[in-house]
Design a protein that fits this description.
Blueprint lengths: L2 H6 L8 H12 L8 H11 L5 E4 L5 E5 L6 E7 L4 E7 L4 E7 L11 E6 L2 E8 L20 E3 L5 H6 L7 E4 L4 E3 L3 E4 L2 H19 L7 E7 L7 H10 L3 E9 L8 H4 L9 E4 L5 H13 L5 E4 L7 H6 L7 E8 L7 E4 H16 L12
Parallel strand pairs: 3-12, 3-13, 13-16, 14-15
Antiparallel strand pairs: 1-2, 2-12, 4-5, 4-9, 5-8, 6-7, 6-9, 7-8, 10-11, 11-17, 14-16
Helix pairs in contact: 2-5, 5-10, 8-10
Length: 370
């Protein structure tokens, strides 16, 4: 957008104290891929006052529905799951080796505190790592999935198992939500529970502003995105929507060691990111961009080759083709425990989805060759 427009526009906050308190609880709660139930309960409890019905599928995707009897169906969607680890092998002397559940980053693991989820409750552990004094040699070994390990203070396999730990137990980091410099939200799992929060806020705004939509709105919080868009694939077949607007995170490329040539020029604080990609339906994308311009919502643009890598692809290629678009939230340090998003970007993604919905008509046909 033009610099003049951006200067004239006054930022309109959306997130209030009550919703921020929910956001903090929601981020701090563990909801790893395949084990999202507790997070979904929190999310449903929050949106329940703003919806007419809800549905939860066999694998845990949660859907809040407004106007459930309407024939024309519009989806706004995010994914609920977070990256994590699985217990894979317990040594005779009580150390634990792991495998990924989603795209967990082995480079950040050493010295992290974790929660091992068992049927007996949470067991605390740490990712151990040899002291710097002991790592001398011609070539220092770096962290790899095959050499990082957990220490839960046990000295035998039997002692570990007595705590309720077994192969297949899921492991999450214990880092918690915070606000940094009154400007950024910081925490683990902002990818993409920030999205779940934002679509819940859209439902709240529609309810509080007494907006009556001429279509059925399906507010979808999908599971298992981190291992292949699986939850979105399943729920798209169930809902059979006419339109889908997906929100996820994307990389802030203004921090060191990221190439703008390959990743694009995007930054936190400069607004939502609208994506161009084969899975993004052009006319729906134009409606979103015009909505941003008409409402003076700052936005950025990105391009994705072949696929977006988000649930947009799952919705777009379902049910003989569903007009779909992607509105992304710029994020720093993805798949770490200190993911960062700008407060104003969160507000503006909510504004953009909310106002885009108001511009969709009952029976809206987005095809451009008729």
């Amino acid at each position: 957008m033009a610099k003049k427009e951006q200067k004239e526009r006054k930022h309109i906050p959306v997130v209030n104290k009550k919703s921020l308190a929910f956001f903090e609880r929601y981020i701090n709660n563990a909801a790893p891929t395949g084990f999202e139930a507790e997070g979904q309960k929190l999310w449903l409890d929050y949106i329940r006052p703003y919806i007419d019905e809800h549905y939860v599928d066999n694998y845990g995707t949660a859907v809040g529905i407004i106007n459930p009897k309407a024939k024309y169906k519009v989806v706004i969607e995010a994914h609920a799951d977070e990256i994590s680890w699985f217990v894979n092998y317990i040594t005779s002397d009580g150390l634990i080796y792991v495998i990924r559940n989603g795209g967990s980053d082995h480079m950040i693991a050493p010295s992290k505190r974790v929660n091992i989820h068992t049927d007996k409750g949470i067991v605390k552990a740490v990712f151990g790592w040899p002291a710097i004094h002991t790592r001398s040699g011609e070539k220092e070994e770096t962290p790899k999935v095959k050499n990082i390990f957990l220490d839960c203070g046990c000295t035998s396999k039997e002692e570990v198992e007595a705590l309720g730990i077994h192969v297949g137990c899921v492991i999450t980091y214990e880092d918690e939500f915070m606000v940094l410099n009154d400007r950024y939200y910081v925490g683990r799992a902002l990818d993409n529970r920030a999205g779940g929060f934002m679509i819940a806020e859209v439902a709240r705004l529609l309810h509080e502003n007494k907006k009556k939509l001429p279509f059925g709105l399906y507010i979808v919080n999908s599971v298992q995105e981190e291992i292949g868009l699986r939850g979105a694939e399943m729920i798209a077949e169930y809902i059979q929507p006419n339109v889908a607007i997906v929100t996820d995170v994307t990389h802030d490329t203004s921090t060191p060691m990221i190439s703008k040539v390959s990743e694009g020029d995007l930054a936190c604080g400069k607004g939502p990111v609208v994506t161009y990609a084969p899975a993004v339906q052009n006319n729906l994308n134009r409606l979103i961009i015009k909505t941003a311009e008409d409402n003076k919502i700052p936005f950025q643009r990105s391009a994705s080759s072949r696929s977006t890598g988000t649930d947009t692809d799952a919705f777009a290629y379902s049910n003989a083709g569903v007009p779909s678009a992607l509105i992304s939230l710029p994020l720093r340090y993805m798949h770490t425990t200190v993911e960062m998003v700008h407060k104003e970007d969160v507000d503006n993604v909510i504004h953009l989805i909310y106002n885009s919905l108001l511009n969709i008509k009952d029976g809206h046909d987005f095809r451009y060759i008729q």
